[in-house]
């Protein structure tokens, strides 16, 4: 658990400073979650990721930052998208959704886990009322969503640590694993 010490929002850059740093094991690209603002969605919701660390503090880029994007999937349909920051604390854009896709107001999007950084199935965004717009001739839908974190009221966040996963053993043909006979050193 970490406390938010300060926040800055300048020209679409949304960053908070935490009271935990490298001496606490915090590292760059670490995922940060917080309680959400939707009572229908329980648990930690994606808040952002660590972008810099000092021994005593760390800086976290919020998911609403103009430079932030996270791969997500629709909880109802499993269709994938990219949740991109807009620089506004209450708005995300869902991109790369084909215009023929089934997306509805109120749909919940969760992290897909496909980037190898954000773990799968953490809530990210909810499609706004009248947030789905189709433009004739545009192959992609324009979708507006609200983050499932209330950034204004969040005072504490949780830093996630991943456990190291060992790759599965690869089955090799028997000839590849059979040791060659050793010579005894004596010549016949």
UniProtKB/TrEMBL annotation:
One of its GO terms (cellular component) is plasma membrane. One of its GO terms (biological process) is regulation of cell shape. Residues 10-161 form the Rod shape-determining protein MreC beta-barrel core domain. Signal peptide: none annotated. Pfam families: MreC. Keywords: Cell shape. Belongs to the MreC family. PANTHER family: CELL SHAPE-DETERMINING PROTEIN MREC. This is Cell shape-determining protein MreC. It comes from Cyprideis torosa.
């Amino acid at each position: 658990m970490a406390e938010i010490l300060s926040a800055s929002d300048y020209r679409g850059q949304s960053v908070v400073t935490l009271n935990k740093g490298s001496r606490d094991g915090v590292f760059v690209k670490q995922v940060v979650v917080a309680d959400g603002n939707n009572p229908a969605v329980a648990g930690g919701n994606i808040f952002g990721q660590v972008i810099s660390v000092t021994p005593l503090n760390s800086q976290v880029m919020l998911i609403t930052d103009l430079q932030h994007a996270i791969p997500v999937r629709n909880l109802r349909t499993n269709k994938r998208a990219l949740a991109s920051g807009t620089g506004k604390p209450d708005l995300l854009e869902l991109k790369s959704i084909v215009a023929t896709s089934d997306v509805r107001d109120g749909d919940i999007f969760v992290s897909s886990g496909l980037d190898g950084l954000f773990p799968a199935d953490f809530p990210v965004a909810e499609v706004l009322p009248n947030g789905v717009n189709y433009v004739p001739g545009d192959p992609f839908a324009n979708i507006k969503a609200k983050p499932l974190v209330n950034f204004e009221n969040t005072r504490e966040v949780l830093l996630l640590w991943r456990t190291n996963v060992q790759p599965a053993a690869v089955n090799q043909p028997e000839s590849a694993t059979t040791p060659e006979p050793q010579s005894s050193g004596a010549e016949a």
